[in-house]
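Note on ligand handling. Small-molecule inputs were canonicalized before submission; formal charges were left as drawn, and no protonation-state enumeration was performed. Where a ligand contained multiple stereocentres, the stereochemistry in the source SMILES was retained. For nicotinamide-adenine-dinucleotide, this procedure yielded the string shown in the input block below.
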Amino acid sequence: MDTIRIETSGGSYPVHIGKGIRSKWRELIDNYASYSSFFIITDEAVEGHYLSSILGKEKLAYFVVPSGEESKSFEQYHKCMTALLEADLDRKSCIISLGGGVVGDLAGFAAATYMRGIDFIQMPTTLLAHDSSVGGKTGINHELGKNLIGAFHQPVAVIYDIECLRTLPEREWRSGFSEVIKHALIHDETFLNWLLDRRKAIRNYTDDELQFMIKEGINVKGAIVKEDERETGVRSYLNFGHTLGHAIEAELGYGKMTHGEAVAIGMIYALRMSEEYFQTKLRMDDLRSWFQELGLPVAVPRELNRRKLLQRMKKDKKAENKSLQFVLLKKIGTPIKVSIDDETALKLLEVSVERSV
Ligand SMILES: NC(=O)c1ccc[n+]([C@@H]2O[C@H](COP(=O)([O-])OP(=O)(O)OC[C@H]3O[C@@H](n4cnc5c(N)ncnc54)[C@H](O)[C@@H]3O)[C@@H](O)[C@H]2O)c1
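Structure output:
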């Protein structure tokens, strides 16, 4: 088992990564005895696979939401809150989020707001959740945009059992891998080369390789969050590929494309923009063919209206004064935030649509 410590002003906590560690969660929580009760929030798919191994012989209360992005909604949030109240959770109770980024964001937001905030533990079960389970961003979607309602609330521990990844559907592997690549691109060329030296279908990575890449990804995220928990500066670099990615997700309708797939398109777009902006070469062609080998999309779906995407990008909560902000790469591992005019962004969208690739 590897343990990484995440340091933030909102709390310092361990991230345990290992095989088969989920059933040992009680031993892995330092202050286990200090909690009055535990309450698990999970989704339908994860319930079937893993809930019983977390419950063990204990009769813990739990709440199950439907699988998928639609559960990051006011409706499910309200139902969660009702379940917590009906289970008589008090301020010494602790919520366990068992699932991917959707459950993590929803359960984290429930923990952030229940009785003005109680503790929670992240037990990620997707590859993508190596990103979402660390850093304390929690929240739900509004029909006007993704993740617009939320809170910063750090977990007290992250328990990442890589064994859970083996039941992930193919698309979810890809989706998570896209965020692994993002962490390498924005922070660490050595890690990127490590990944590129092992080009293969994601499912074929060994447990040791998986554990290594998750650890590296979390190290990148941890370092950035330590410096800038509230996203006033360097944390925005984690949004590399997300300005367009979020717009695509919203414009297609949530759940049509996975988060990582949309981010993959956004990263290729941002790489192209970086090459033009800095008049440099960033191995964009090589990276794009690698994405294609992995089965990740690299082009904007043809049916999406480019002007609407532009408007969405301007509404992104990271936009400043409604001007477009993009995280670009000066070189691999060196991100920088820049303002881009509408015309340039639109022109690049036109060359990024499906037919042009
Ligand atoms: N808070 C953050 O910092 C942050 C960062 C990145 C992404 N996110 C959010 O994360 C969400 C995406 O997360 P995700 O990709 O993990 O999606 P997800 O939670 O919807 O999981 C993907 C699918 O896999 C299923 N699943 C989960 N674990 C499984 C397992 N072990 N075996 C079989 N099926 C399993 C789920 O039921 C779901 O259908 C988005 O809402 C995104 O906004 C948050």
